[in-house]
Design a protein that fits this description.
By secondary structure, the chain is an alpha/beta fold. It has a single domain, classed as 2-enoyl-CoA Hydratase, Chain A, domain 1 (Alpha-Beta Complex). Strands 1-2-3-4-6-9 form a six-stranded mixed sheet, with helices on both faces. A hairpin with a 2-residue loop joins β1 and β2.
Length: 275
């Protein structure tokens, strides 16, 4: 029997959700996405949970969409922002999972690429292993973001750095991510799980109603400030898709460049099948 694509471990007021396709560098399939959404919803509904930790099974956090599935004939992950297939329910069109009322601490243990970077951007607090690298390769593989990256990334790292990451596809190491504000802390790789749990435990130890109300306020303010940008990103993605761009072919054309980037020492998790 194959392992679960997403696992959850709960204890001491913390739900640790792990993306668990390590051989595929935790690349996103429709099955993984469904399981992640279910896990987030369950953790959010659990009265014993005060905070959620999201991480990946080594060696990666998440290498992005599985391009084998994207280019296959079966059910696909819908990329167009603002619209969702019936088999891909989501509470908000720009969000990879239904927004939780509890804080999500991202423990980025390795490469967080494109869709994986979007997962990270939807966490409330990010910690990184020294092995973490971040990249937006949408332009490399010929797809548009659908989960708010073009809005959230410049808020995290600034206008210039966000455009540089998106337009070049360059990889950013953990220390650079810390310097630009994408992550709040970089720690030794073996220390990351414990450190993420310490941060989550500090949250869970506080008044839960106050944490929920304060987080809701932060998110409502952010949504008021970004609603127009999220709508514009969704429209851009719909227009790109409607133009008839062959996303799978675009990915195939660029896959060798992603592989070469990995061989230069930044392990993207790409083997020609992921972005």
């Amino acid at each position: 029997m194959s392992e679960e694509a997403v696992t959850t471990r709960t204890g001491d007021g913390i739900a640790t959700i792990t993306l668990n396709r390590p051989a595929a560098r935790n690349a996103i399939t429709l099955d993984m996405l469904r399981r992640l959404r279910d896990a987030m919803t369950a953790a959010d509904a659990d009265p014993a949970v005060g905070a959620i930790v999201l991480t990946g099974a080594d060696p990666a956090f998440c290498a992005g969409l599985d391009l084998k599935e994207l280019g296959g004939s079966g059910p696909r992950i819908k990329l167009s922002g603002g619209e969702r297939a019936e088999d891909e329910p989501c509470g908000a069109a720009h969000c990879p999972w239904r927004p939780t009322g509890k804080p999500v601490v991202g423990a980025v243990n390795g490469p967080a690429i494109t869709g994986g970077l979007e997962f990270a951007l939807h966490c409330d607090i990010l910690l990184a292993s020294e092995r973490a690298v971040f990249a937006d390769t949408h332009a490399r593989v010929g797809v548009m973001p659908g989960w708010g990256l073009s809005v959230l990334l410049p808020r995290a790292v600034g206008r210039g750095m966000a455009r540089r990451m998106s337009l070049t596809g360059e990889f950013v190491d953990a220390r650079t991510a810390l310097r630009f504000g994408l992550v709040t802390e970089v720690t030794a790789h073996e220390r990351l799980p414990g450190r993420a749990r310490e941060v989550a435990a500090a949250i869970a130890a506080n008044d839960p109603e106050a944490v929920t109300a304060l987080l809701a306020s932060y998110r409502a303010i952010e949504l008021e400030e970004t609603a127009g940008g999220l709508a514009r990103e969704a429209a851009t993605t719909r227009e790109w898709t409607a133009a008839g761009v062959d996303r799978a072919a675009g990915a195939s054309r660029r896959r060798e460049e992603v592989v070469r980037a990995g061989r230069r020492g930044l392990d993207t998790g790409a083997d020609g099948n992921r972005a």
